[in-house]
Amino acid sequence: MIAWSNENGPWAEPVSSPRLKWLRTHVAWPPVTVSLWDDTPSPPKSPKPPSSLTHKLPVITDSLQEPPVNMDSYHKPDEKTLQGLKDIANKLRINSIKATCASNSGHPSSCCSAAELMSVLFFHTMRYKAKDPRNACNDRFVMSKGHAAPILYAAWAEAGYVKEADLLNLRKLDCELEGHPTPKLAFVDVATGSLGQGLGAACGMAYTGKHFDKSSYRVYCLLGDGECSEGAVWEAMAFASHYGLDNLVAILDVNRLGQSEAAPLKHDTTAFQERCKAFGWNTYVVDGHDVEELCKALWHAERFKGKPTAIVAKTFKGKGLKGIEDQENWHGKPVPKDRVDALLADLQAQIQAPNKQIQAELPNEDAAPVDNTPIQLPTAPEYKLGDKISTRKAYGVALKRMGDSSKRVVALDGDTKNSTFSEIFKKAHPERYIECFIAEQNMVSVAIGCATRDRTVAFASTFAAFFSRAYDQIRMAAISQSNVNLVGSHCGVSIGEDGPSQMALEDLAMFRAIPTCTVFYPSDGVSTERAVELAANTKGICFIRTSRPDTAVLYEAGEKFEIGKARVVRQSDSDKVTVIGAGVTLHEALAAHDQLAKEGVNIRVIDPFTIKPLDAETIVASARATGGRVITVEDHYKEGGLGEAVLAAVGEEPGIIVQRLAVDRVPQSGKPQELLDLFGISAKCIVAAVRRTFAN
């Protein structure tokens, strides 16, 4: 049967009816999201359909819309399999309760709402090698509602990868089964727990599978209903439908209750359904505790082409736990000790075949093995000393050249490709470019997903200021052990007339605070190309800070650069002060050097190349050689930038004084040179600072 409804009411009729055949021919199809059931043995009672073929239907004009799959072709699992899935669901509940009781913390009620969802996914739908969770061919699973981690661990215990006894070590210091999933575990691709981020990462995995790996593996993401208040979820929804990611399934665990009160939509599955449909998803509404409905919906999802599928599953928080099910104030609380035995006994009594095991189907062997061969620029940079080029454009050139060297290199951008110059890569390698539009949170999540299992080397670019919007995603990328490369352009007041909303002045502080992050700040075309090359081969997050103004090439094409190694650009035996600048301010420091040299004052000029790690050894040695006098100059706020990095490097060294020149207030529009002067970071301001050093 197929059912739908609109303002004239609901009705249902057989898929094979002449009326529906006419509708398929003359009306955009399907008119709305369908409900699923077989014609046999007996469908739900059907409301009487309207007699007229002119009954008004909503029209769907999406060019990706496909005719519906044949509902009659669904092959129902046998009764033993269905009972086995029910039994596994209760086993997962039992182990989630035991684990959270052992740790005296966790979220068993959130686990229990998802028990049937996890059972059907892991033991009926997904294809994977249980003993090899990171296998490139495996289906992917993202637990976006990361607080339900215990049931994920329980599922992998049921699959035979995790020892059941280890579940009792949940959340302990010496156990990798943490409170929320992290990739310390081989079966976790991305860390979750900061809600709303899992679907974006799943989009990156699905895009990679469909367009880069060209593999049959599928991606499943389990979301909570509460996290669907996060805007990042809907950024991901829009992305997935735009790219027709029909290898992606989002399962919404609509259990009604949030952490402190009911979720906004409670059990209004129709509202979730309509929202998903409005974002261009094929959508099914199911009873999330009915394993047969879940099997059927997931079966149809696998066969639906042209769109991602959302399964809106009505569930109950704490399902199966008498006195706790669908009750408020049980979020994040283990079952009380005086009730646990009775609840476990009740669940155990519902298991009919406790020793029956269901093995996951193996995946198709159609994804290439991981290739971690180092990626190098095909030739040395082609710039000559004195050539003028902005580092943002040099980034685009370098990225294109890295793409020439390796098909693993992919680029993402947030509709700024003509400013970040990632468009150079797109023109050369359009099949490996992902336009993420103005949705920076999702762009970062997609990049993280693309980089999982080392399937790609991903570079994502936008204005550096806009990465602040995605800071939580970046923070979670570090927990995910992600090897993702983020490139921010339009840094500082040197961008000029666009004004402060476009000026990145906090980005160095942001990225320096990320534990696994390498922060590059190249100052010319050659060092930018080498920064891109190094980032492509560096573990962890890499941030490359690029600038808008054209600046002179400072280095020979054959110069070698290393992470954590500064370059002393100007020096003499009579240097009086060490000046450290980066990007635009390095060129201002060089101009100050030349002006002071005419006055008979020599200064040492250092290009740090990386702000994290910073070359403390070179800086300390130079400071000692210049009487302990150091000036830092940066197109960034004072807090958290180059100056503070240098202070940290020399902080335990006696006799070294650091004077910091930086943007000290919210800036404004103006010409670049005017703003450098106004905020005290231009060549003339450096000259004045050097003079003040001697005056003091």
Provide a descriptive summary of the structure in words.
By secondary structure, the protein is of the alpha/beta class. It has 4 domains: 1-73, no CATH class; 85-349, Thiamin diphosphate (ThDP)-binding fold, Pyr/PP domains (Rossmann fold), CATH 3.40.50; 388-552, Rossmann fold (3-Layer(aba) Sandwich), CATH 3.40.50; 567-695, Rossmann fold, CATH 3.40.50.920. The strands form 5 sheets. It has a 7-stranded mixed sheet, with helices on both faces. It has a 5-stranded parallel sheet with strand order 4-5-6-8-7, with helices on both faces. It has a 5-stranded mixed sheet with strand order 17-19-18-21-22, with helices on both faces. It is elongated, with a radius of gyration of 29 Å.
